[in-house]
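=== RUN LOG ===
request id: a7f3
mode: sequence -> structure
chains: 1
length: 202
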Amino acid sequence: MGFCFPGQDHSGADLPPRRECAPLWHDALMVRLPDIALVLAIGRYAQNYHFRRLDLARYLGGSLSHTLQHWRDVWAAREAPKLLPLPHPSWRNTGWLKRNPWFEAELCRWSAPRCDGCWRASDLIVSGAIKGAFQDMAYSTIRCATDDGVALITLARPDKLNAINAAMHSELRTALDAARDDPAVRCVVLTGEGRHSPRARI
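=== RESULT ===
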């Protein structure tokens, strides 16, 4: 939600997203990408933000389990953008996944073919296979590439934990405008360099 790594607490666990980041950066991003077809709300912070933004707060449960168990209702509630709640891919959720085998058996198998373009984007990120017109654009704080309808924007300030400064903000706006205006782009993947890097599928 914050597009940067918030740091760790005394036990080594990730801190929650910084409170100022979502209103400062995420709201502006959503305004500049009005034709998003699918939102993957990964974790409680993203779910709280996007469920309320998309007038779906009535489906927010008191726990992650309650919210995810109503994923079919959430999916059916809107024509566009569709919203799919998911657990955060954290070691803390290993126990939850074991206690809720329906998640993999039902939701993951159902969603995979419907989100194929974004899933393949993750594979391309890992393999370094994404290439395209964006990669030649002159940016100092981000890198851009496209492949088969997927636009990849990588935050490139790993020494600053990819914190967004004025220069990066300007370059992100330029890159997102280019992705928005390109009819060949179907999915935008936002990720970052370094060990603590965010990844968001838009």
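=== NOTES ===
Strands lie at 38-42, 82-86, 142-147, 150-155, 187-192, 199-201.
The first helix runs from residue 21 to 32.
=== END ===
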